[in-house]
Design goal:
103 residues, elongated
Amino acid sequence: MYAILEIGGKQYKVAQEDIIEVNKIEQEDNSSVTLDKVLLVANGQDIKVGQPYVEGASVEAEVLAQTKAAKVVVYKYLRRKDSHKKTGHRQKLTKLLIKKINN
């Protein structure tokens, strides 16, 4: 059994006991969260597709940790101008453990 979720404008394919990293969700560690933007639920040959979301379907998850992604380095350079600028960015992430898929 698996489901396709929409979290933060992105889509994730999840199954029970999967661990996924999504853009930061304002929740405490070890708290539970219910995700109700379910686009598709598949249980063997039984497939439910939402328009845009499946009614009555939800996914229960547990927040494992608030982390940061690897650093992305941005380097801007103008030739012959003695101008360069180096900056970096680390995206804040939330690690989720998928507990249960309700259809």
